[in-house]
Model the fold of this input.
Amino acid sequence: MHLLVVDWDFFFPTPAAGGPQGPHDDLFTWPVAEDEFHTETIWEARHRDFTAAGVELPQVTGWQGFWRRFRFSDGTVLVYADSNAWAGLLWPSDLDRPNERWDSVHLYDAHHDAGYRQNHQSFEEWKASGDGIRCETWMLAHHWAGASLHVHFPPWRESLDRPREEPLAPVAMTIDDGRAPAAVFDLVFACRSGAWVPPWCDEAFTEFLRSAPLPKTVFDQNRWVHPRPDPARVAEMKRELYAKVEKMNRHSG
Done:
């Protein structure tokens, strides 16, 4: 049995994840955390930074026609959510196959999600840590169960040397060349990655889901706002509010 996982940031080129570098790379060196501040609030400030620098807002690209390359077994469903961490909780038992594990997990992502050495030095250390399944470690859960892991980095990535990848478990890593894996997939998961991909790409994510030739369901533990508030509109509303307050203060004075 085979699991396919697609992270929306696969289609969002950034220099920090190995994309082409340029004069405004500092605008992409943002901190990430899967909380409301980093998935929603912070994007207004980032939108303002791009605008102030005269840089066109970065967009997703290359998602059209993505699903056509894959083969799916009868009854395959696409599950979606905001965080990729939920992919670590998807098992053949969700398909009424309680005694099986995934033979392979294929991930299309700008990051490998198989553990990072700034957090743990080894797979064994992660197992003993009690940290559990997070967006950056969920593939380790499937490795633990015996699945082979495959990461397909986006074609906009220039090299596997930048950034250098050192997952905590064996992972077959490649830059996507458009060819399909041999696997026939029994379950598909797609995540929006709201801490990595901005709200102005949310409508495209909706279209990306719609384009998949599969029945769809949201992961039952997911909590999110979709689409998120438009940062440009939020900024405009704040400017209007501040102008009203300033006018009121002048009149009251």
In short: DSSP finds five helices and nine strands in the chain. The beta strands are 2-7, 71-72, 78-81, 104-108, 148-153, 172-175, 184-185, 187-191, 216-218. The chain has a mean pLDDT of 93.
